[in-house]
Amino acid sequence: MATFPVWPPPPGQEPAASTPEWIFEDPRSRALLDEVEQVAPSDAAVLISGETGTGKELIARYLHNRSARQGGSFVVVSCGAFSDTLVDAELFGHENGAFAGAFGTQVGWFEQANGGTIFLDEVNDLPLPVQNKLLRVLQEREIVRLGGRTPIPVDLRIVAATTVDLETLVQEKRFRKDLYYRLNVVNLNVLTLKERPGDIVPLARYFINTYSKRLGHARATLTPEAERLLTQSPWHGNVRELENVIHRTLLLCDGNTIDASDLRLSSRPASSPAQAVAQARPETEPPIASTAPPTAQPPDPSSADEAALLCQAIQHLCNDSVGNVYQVVEDALFREVFRYCHYSQSDAARVLGVSRNVVRARLIRLGEVGAPRTSPFASTPATPAHEDVMGT
After folding, report:
1. Are residues 60 and 150 in the same domain?
2. What does the alpha-carbon distance between residue 131 and residue 146 come to, in Å, rounded to a whole number?
3. How many domains does the chain fold into?
4. Against a cut of 0.85, is the pTM above it?
5. Do residues 113 and 137 both lie within one domain?
6. Per-run averaged pLDDT (10 residues), the chain, 392 residues
7. Does residue 16 belong to any structural domain of this protein?
């Protein structure tokens, strides 16, 4: 019988944040953990694939804690968080005077992970020149700092994660084929939350415990109706969306019992980001005539209503004599897509159909993300690991 965490836990029985056996209860998740157990003792490179918010970082931590390197560092690097000009120095370090503002010698994330495991999240965002250097690390087990010439040996395990199909990027010449095969020695696919419904209620209980502690509340319980609604919801945002729902519910709920109505989940299935953008995109060109017989399709009233609301909002801006309507609409578009994608720059770039650098530059201008540092190691390095259980 599955056992669920309680809050507060009994003395001496506090569950480790890096041990997800008590969170992953679905049979398909248990099968994934069994696979992790099999490959953990080796030093083989591992590629973890899955949608944003499915828990790829948690699997990587579990892999590290089941390996012979569990006593070493577990370093998390978000490859999509750095500009192309800084990612080289961040990963491999730099020597004194390697570039303007490079005062002193600084080690990179690979050296910091020496003896342990480095987790390269969003590895698909690495520029090609850095991919070349990463390939050398995998082949020769050594790095060369930016501005240096002396190879530095490193003893570590590389675990990478991606939200996109790397094979497609290889075909498009945007990801090195040899690097792909070097990283993909073992492939672990983390399913979406909807594909592993047995994890939904245990995860919800876990987040109830976590946020009850943070908010200083007594531990709340879920009614059977609330559990049923949680299990039936689509969860397009995966575990991160579930975490946000539980957090919001605890903030707004008055009692210690969470009912279905307290969750405030929409009964209407949410569309994917690509569908939402497609619905809002105006038709600028007439449809191409087709010789095939037309297929009768009932109109989608929800799509028509959303398109009408968008047009109405634009008309209001024009009627109110808002200056630079184009900029106002474009800024709102970037903000909303960024939030819809759970603050993932890579996902927002794919939804908008632009490069991640364009998204990052626009979000910096809007104040949604911080500007890049002038020197990658000018001060104490920012904590690379996200402390949330389901960070990726």
Report:
1. yes
2. 14
3. 3
4. no
5. yes
6. 42 47 86 95 95 92 94 92 81 79 81 95 92 92 88 95 93 94 96 95 93 89 95 92 94 89 71 44 41 46 66 76 76 85 79 81 79 42 43 56
7. no
